[in-house]
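Thread title: Can someone regenerate the structure for this chain?

I was given the following input by a collaborator and told the matching C-alpha cells would be attached. They weren't. Posting the sequence so someone can regenerate them.
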Amino acid sequence: MNGAYTLAELTLFISNMEYEKLIILNAKDAYHVFKSVREMQ
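Best answer:
Regenerated them for you:
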C-alpha cells in the first residue's frame, strides 16, 4: 500500500464521497476505491 497520500488528499476524497458509504466499506475496499478515483483524475 502506497503511503504517499497526504491528509489533504484523504480529506478531499472523504468529502467527495457519501460518508455513510465510506463507513460501510472495509479498509481494503476503501483503498481500492481511492486508488481508482486517483487514477481517473
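The chain has one domain: 7-40.
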